[in-house]
Amino acid sequence: MSAEMNLKIKIWRQKNSKTSGSFETYPVVANEHMSFLEMLDVLNEDLISQKKEPIVFEHDCREGICGACSLVINGQPHGPNSGTTTCQLHMRFFKDGDIIVVEPYRASAFPVLKDVAVDRSAFDRIMQAGGYISVNAGQAPDGNAIPIEKGRAGQSFEAAACIGCGACVAACPNGSAMLFTSAKIAHLGHLPQGVVEADKRAQAMVAQMDKEGFGMCSNVGACEAECPKEIKLENIAFMNRSYLKAVFSGEEV
Amino acid sequence: MANPCFTQIHPTCIPVSGEYQSKLTLMSESLRNDGRVWVPKKKEDAQAIQQGKLKGVNIKEEDRDYNLERRYPAFGNLVPRDVASRAAKVECDKGHGVSPTGLAVFLDFSDAILRYGKIEANKKGLTNLSNEQIIALGEEVVSAKYGNLFEMYEKITGENPYKEPMKIYPAVHYTMGGVWVDYNLETNVPGLFALGECNFSDHGANRLGASALMQGLADGYFVIPYTIGTFLANEISTPKIKNDLPEFLEAEKATKVLIDKLLNTKGNQSVESFHRRLGKIMWEYCGMARNEAGLIKGRQMIRELRAEFYNDVFVPGSNDEFNPELEKAIRVADLLEHGELMMVDALNRNESCGGHFREESVTEDGEAMRKDSEYAYVAAWEWNETEPILHKEPLIFENVELKTRSYK
Ligand code: SF4
Ligand code: FES
Question: Is B281 found in the same domain as B203?
């Protein structure tokens, strides 16, 4: 029922962030029902059985919700299928005999930890700089006490779908993190609870983003095309508005 | 660890398709609102389906057994997860399963599609519609409700659930048990608080939909802000704790010894292979239905597997680099103890309660039977290599009475 596929995986191997890496090619027998990560599991088990070091790659939920998986597959972050994370990419998008090139995300703000795993903690620091709303824990507010207009709730919800995977950075020729940061800013900034600190948030998060060494946005739009959660460029416009408003209002952060 | 045997098995998973699978895909339980579960009445039909010679749609209405509706007329396809899961197992064990492995039941939407189609036609005032047109209208409604799930199902299985009944089978979903905590969410280690899914406190023996999220919110928002202060208030003048205390040194040393042992065993079997074998033992002997002989056997098998693990595991790499295989080995070492504890707890609890079903404890018509006079307690276990120690915490009900619900 499931066709066997003989593939060659040309994958980046690098011991750690201090050494330089290179490509290695391994054969693997997969089938079309496997996810891309399951195919790598099979390859790793094979390497382990030969007492070789398995390939280090990142994964966690394997159902497209955590943002841990990454990989640039044949030049595309998260591979060829649009709106899909690497963990949900099935091997039926490849064919028998293919040579598949697998690289880590390449961006100066995402140093390679090992093989195809990169350090994306810069995203955490951007979040820590302002990606939250301040609330006093205490008595629960009444449900529906704050009316939220449906359109706004929708915009917020769509932005909140960002899983923080970093594909936008990897796709961008400038290594810009604008799509990610703007999604986080828009997610909170569209809701009444988040409006209170919106200016401060935009300034703080943008400042942290610059500090981490992400590049500038030059409206290439590759981020939107590669984002597995289809986060829209509109969010960047929203972020720029929030940011400019904050700067002109003269508030210091 | 409290109540480790309480495991929730989710009835609506996409069935197993291969050894390499890292996890099974859960379809939402909402599907049972409109889908009807059935298996072929005749074994020959089931076999033909397993061999790919027949399809679900080829089976005539009178040859179908809507097993949940038959057994539970009042609740039908909406019985709780544990009941639906066990019912699927019963049919598959009898040889009526429908996937190539024989481990699947149908979840059929054709009636729902027809019903919604008729309602739509009425709403729009359309009479004289052909059957196909009604079905098309119904499919639209079903697609609006479950479109993304149907799409996901088709992506994974390559079958179109609008035209052919889905195939589903139960799989492990959630553990109701967890780290023991008191009412303040403090564990038995003073100052260590456990919040959310990792503790055992909220679900009892079964879990309701969305209650894992509820627990995270309730623990984090309503409990801990009020309880942690009491602990911290007494600690205000405690100086920063140094890491050269004997307890710290001892714990650090134990971890180092374990890591060295794992790296130096240099055996022949991968960490993953042990994890998979453990999973199979758990599913076989501590899964949907458990019995004394099986649990004793399962426990013994885990003990043997654990010994084999420490003798023959191969962990590549070293401990001075990013080494996920080593991390996994440490987790599997933990799971090899945890799995045994689940068996021990399941063996101790000789009643059927929530997610835990003991074949010895059933009513005359085969339904789960609790024994409140003997087991109305939380089983909190203290790990011990030879024999874990049980601490019972009685459950006292002041405002409600313990009752048994019937789904018949
Ligand atoms: S915006 Fe899209 S690509 Fe960027 S981090 Fe979020 S989900 Fe990933
Ligand atoms: S592993 Fe979680 S999104 Fe891919």
Answer: no
Best B101, B275, B321 residue to mutate vs chain A (most A CBs within 10 Å): B321
In-domain check, residue B381 = yes
CATH homologous superfamily of A120-249 equals Alpha-helical ferredoxin (1.10.1060.10)
- Cα–ligand 1 centroid distance for A168 (angstroms): 5
Q: Which of B172, B198, B218 represents a domain boundary (last residue)?
A: B172
Looking only at Cα atoms, what is the longest distance across chain A? 65
pLDDT band with cut points at 50, 70 and 90 for residue B405:
confident
CA dist B39 and B63 (Å) reads 9
Verify that B167 and B22 share a domain, yes or no: yes
Which pLDDT score, from 0 to 100, does residue A140 have? 67
Spans of chain A below 70 pLDDT: 1-2, 137-140, 250-253
Q: Convert the pLDDT of each residue in B186-203 to its tens digit.
A: 999 999 999 999 999 988
- What architecture does CATH give domain A4-114? Roll (3.10)
What is the number of structural domains in chain B? 3
B319-328 pLDDT, tens per residue? 999 999 999 9
Query: Is the same domain home to B195 and B165?
Result: no
Beta strands at A99-103 and A4-13: parallel, antiparallel or unpaired: parallel
Return the ligand number nearest the Cα of A177.
1
Are B85 and B193 in contact by the 8 Å Cβ rule? The answer is: no
Dihedral class, residue B79 (left if φ above 0, else alpha if ψ from -120 to 50, else beta): beta
Q: Which of A34, A51, A62 sits opposite B23 (nearest CB)?
A: A62
Give the Å distance between the CA of A162 and the centre of ligand 1. 5
Q: Which domain holds residue B191?
A: 176-236
Q: Which of B389, B404, B314 has its CA nearest to residue B354?
A: B404
Q: Closest Cα to residue B7, out of B215, B219, B285?
A: B285
- Which pTM value belongs to this model? 0.90
Distance, CA of B14 to CA of B24 (rounded, Å): 6
Residues of A within 8 A of B265 (CB-CB) are: none
Contact A114 B20 (CB under 8 A): no
pLDDT, position B127: 85
- B270-290 burial: b if 16+ Cβ within 10 Å, else e: bbbbbbebbeebbeebbbbbb
pLDDT digits (tens, 9 = 90+) for B281-336: 999 999 999 999 999 999 999 999 999 999 999 999 999 999 999 999 999 999 99
Residue that finishes a domain, picked among B236, B252, B281: B236
Q: What pLDDT score was predicted for residue A250?
A: 65
State the closest ligand 2 atom to the C-alpha of A165, by its place in the atom list counted from 1: 3
Residue nearest to atom 6 of ligand 1 (CA): A162
Q: A229 CA distance to ligand 1 centroid (A)?
A: 7
Residue of B nearest to A32 (CA): B156
Average pLDDT over residues B363-367: 88
Max alpha carbon distance in chain B (Å)? 85
